[in-house]
Amino acid sequence: MFKERPPPEEERRVRANDREYNEKFQYASNCIVTSKYNVITFLPVNLFEQFQEVANTYFLFLLILQLIPQISSLSWFTTIVPLVLVLSITAVKDATDDYFRHKSDNQVNNRQSQVVIHGSLQKEKWMNVRVGDIIKLENNQFVAADLLLLSSSEPHSLCYIETAELDGETNMKVRQSLSVTAELGDPNSLASFDGEVVCEPPNNKLDRFCGLLCWRDCKYPLSNHNMLLRGCVLRNTETCYGLVIFAGPDTKLMQNSGRTKFKRTSIDRLMNTLVLWIFGFMVCMGVILAVGNAVWEREVGSLFQSYLAWDLPVDNFLFSAFLSFWSYVIILNTVVPISLYVSVEVIRLGHSYFINWDRKMFCPQCNTAAEARTTTLNEELGQVEYIFSDKTGTLTQNIMSFSKCSINGHAYGEVIDPLGAQPKRLDFSSFNPLADPDFCYYDNGLLKSVKLGDLHSHEFFRLLSLCHTVMSEEKKEGELMYKAQSPDEGALVTAARNFGFVFRSRTPGTVTVTELGRPVTYTLLAILDFNNIRKRMSVIVRNPEGRIRLYCKGADTLLFERLHSSNNHLVNITTDHLNEYAGDGLRTLALAYRDLSEEQWEEWSERHRQADRATDCREDRLADIYEHIEQDMMLLGATAIEDKLQEGVPETIAILSLANIKIWVLTGDKQETAVNIGYSCKMLTGDMTEVFIISGNTVLSVREELRRARERMIEFARTREGEKEEGMEGWGKACSLGNGFGGDGGGDGREWPSVGDKQQQCPPPPGPPAPRPPSSTTLDSISGEFALVINGHSLAHALEADMEGEFVSTACVCRAVICCRVTPLQKALVVELIKKHKKAVTLAIGDGANDVSMIKTAHIGVGISGQEGIQAVLASDYSFSQFRFLQRLLLVHGRWSYLRMCRFLCYFFYKNFAFTMVHFWFGFFCGFSAQTVYDQYFITLYNIVYTSLPVLAMGIFDQDVPEQRSLEYPKLYEPGQLNLLFNKREFFICITQGIYTSVVLFFVPYAILSHGTQGTGEPLADYQTFAVTTATALVIVVSVQIALDTGYWTAINHFFVWGSVGSFFTIMLAMHSQTLFSIFPNQFHFVGSAQSTLVQPLVWLTIVLATVICIVPVLAFRFLKLDLKPQLSDTVRYTQLVRQKTRKPAGRCMGGVRVGGVPEGRLGARGGFRRSGYAFAHQEGFGELITSGKNMRLSSLALANFASRHSSSWIDTLRKKKHSNTHPPQNASGESSPAPSYVSGSAPPLSNSSSLLGGSQDTPLEEGTHTLPVILPQVASGPPTNTPALAPAHVPSADALTPTSVRSPGGDLVGGWNLSLGAVQDALFGWRGIAYRTSGTSSPGPPPVPKETNHTM
Question: Catalytic pick from 146, 390, 443, 780?
């Protein structure tokens, strides 16, 4: 029945056109199956999977118990109805998902392919293709399996493929067949091909293939350049033939599509724990009641045996207690109803639709909306602490543009209009009819240099037009389309095209260029190709005059070492330009050339041919030959390419940082490029305390660098603590460290003097030299602005088992971490490391196939639908098109989802404990007989009808503050990170309130009705009256409670809350009616009870009294909490209310400062930072194919800088407690607090005493008070007594903000509530009470030394 699995392969042998031979190896067919079920297996397999959930198994167990008459006090339908409902909904969802998987599989498996069979082409479905078949591919077709390319219709048997589905890269790649099979171009010759391939077994390595072709008694080596992989698309190639090597699940595409890890949220894990606790609590209650039953049956029940005997098979009080225990387990199971899990899934589905429908996360440029690809992780979006981001295509647009250049010591590209006007874009059309109309450039000086015939400029662009591996396609005259291996290389060739040096076409031995309107054909003698070790590429060409020249472009650090000594002066000038370009975050490249004599060329060419034919160490031999010729070159200049940031990236990173989210960039780019982008997007700022560079090549060196970094952090913390103590002695004598450590300052590690009565510096207090590595607790107590940069080989050492703890403890203290030159596997390992060592939620965001492993490893994966294919999107949990949408996803949707889910769970557990515990108290008054308090229909409908919709409405629509305030006050995000809204403490508070409510709901009606009478004098103390009264009071109390818990009312909330109350009365009156009793006399036993009970005034008095006793303590507690310990959201709502009352209709301006952002200028140069070197390609180019005469196909025509956070708020205290709980304190000396720091134009930070709790609450806000984004008072002598209110964090450009005192119309500084409000808002924003510098904030680096200012003391 079951097919025997073949043994694991050590090598694969494939014989062409011989299915019988290949089938004995039991190779997989080309049919793929990603679905889980079929028609026969769906029901049993799906039920098996569902009952693996503990909750479903538990409810099935309860259902079985309810089918036993001796122990069941409830009808079986009270459990089976909700259980079947849940199982059915889940089954339908699973069936729908699997249907689409089947549909996708069938679509792929039924694609048509042309197979060579007996000398003719026959159409076969993909699923019927077998290993060893030869298939024909045509242009724009998908490759059906992993093929060995045998022949092609293109010259030299080349073919062109697009691999976006494999590696995310959209640029064209070239593959070539072996020369011995190139002549097999027709089905007849292919049918006689009987070659045998011996190769490696199936694996997931996309860039590697090793094998041999054995044919005609010869062996030919095979490499990845001979392979076409499944998932690729054939481009610009009419036809080709290939031999199937790997099929179906053995293909590299399927080998890389590993199963997605099942992700569960922290709330899910907590719920599982709480459910087990509740089950244990329920068992304890059952035991208590069972013991009570045993005692009662022995002491009291025995007196009734003569006329009320035990039911069979009960024959003693112990067996009666045993059955009573199981009866109470059934009755009390509603503390965790099955509707909980249904409601959670419905709420999550609603949150997912809100994300999909959010028009503010829709990108009109690419017509892409945000998509929630999972429904299980929404609330965890509100708990993220670490973001791991790719750089290229995620933070940047991955669209390269030629920005600046340096030619023979002259810099071009910087256009500054003294009048401030927008520079005019150059028009190349009149100068060059072949120019690219989309090319943008503004410096007319470079164009003039070309027009005037400057030889250096001509040679510069000639190099760019010749030294590359770009392919050109010209469908009609003048319409060129370039296909480049990297966007950088395409940008350089396009720049040369616009400046008059147009690359037109190439053949295996020539390159044709139109130079200033004149066509010139160069003989291509050799291509010295790029790789990641050489970091440069060269071409050797012969011009029509016969002169031979080598052109080279590459990383300046490597190329400058190979220049002739006469270039020293030019090197110095060009180095300055490169530093300037790197400071602007541009990707730089150096250009050089060398003239060769005929003798030099002949000698080198012979050595090159020998090395190329070598069978061993071929790459090393070629590298030595390349090194020999690339010497004594002459420098031409340098280029600077801009990879533009995506819109809103700096602002997004600034906002997320204020929300206490740490951002790590994991990129394959080199260190300098990544660091410069880090400064451009304001992840790194010049005001940081220190940026640590980890670049060791050995384990010991990396360990030492990490140790030194930790020591520096501790040293800063101790120095800061000392300054804090000095600041307490006198405000005027305070001094601070620079670099923004104290909150302002800025620079690159130096101390900047502060402004006071006397300008002075405080030296750091002497400490012990070389302190021991601090404990985690010590490091966690440090709150400085640190950053860490580590490269790939150092990271490899840091990820080793004995080093990972040191790396994590150091990196997690930093506000930003950049990992450079990392592999996709290292990205996943870094994420896994943080998950392992930190109890924090991680989010990974990327846009390419190299980010898939990271996205799958993180708690939450986000895919950017950008330039690098859709692999990242397919592997993600959420997707959108712009990085800037991440702040809305987290701060709005994530925070709301977390808030709603927490409020839902708190209320759900409360209402069910209030409902269920009444049975427990009733047990002591009914002889522990397992009699239920309520009608069985009420028990069934309580969680399905009466209380389900209101809590669903709250869980789906509730808000604490509007979305604008969520973005303006990032500190509101922190309760989710600290898991404050639903945890074990909150759970116990909820169930305590529920138990208290159950006590009131039972004993108040019991006490009143036991002595109450009707108007006729008849007693009210009967079971049915008590049941109706208690049930009515319960529904009213929980409805009032959810009305109090709801923070955002919609029409749906009103309808559900009051409609549920109305439905309760309607259904209860119907259930207790004479009509239903007459139809089902054995099912409805409460006939007439509701009608007779609800007309009694005493009953309504009882209901009102119980409601008041239940609700008034809750109201009192909440008012006291709001007054004594308000939450951040309470303060935000209050400030918003005050603002609405005091806002004037005139514009939001004051003091000449406009509220809002200022367009951000380009960053200035940062001296001392390394430039971004060579970044024009990331893989080996096409050089070998071009120079071997097997070249490309012939053309048809030939946030702003912000200060360190104030850590005196209560939420930061909780954060420190969290860290101390995670890491037991070992060294108290490390517990340091931020010290007050003063700089020019700044005020001392607000103290804790001026919080909302301690401020004067009797002083109203004065009319006319305006709030501005971080507008602070000027420095005054002595401690300030009045501070203006701070406004939300709009993250405007700091250039627009100046220190301004805000005064009321009366002329006095606003005080009273404003001071305390400012302190609370200071905690909300995480921004210190420090004035922004009026200059230098847009560009990192050391700030200007503040001018000395005297203040009268």
Answer: 390
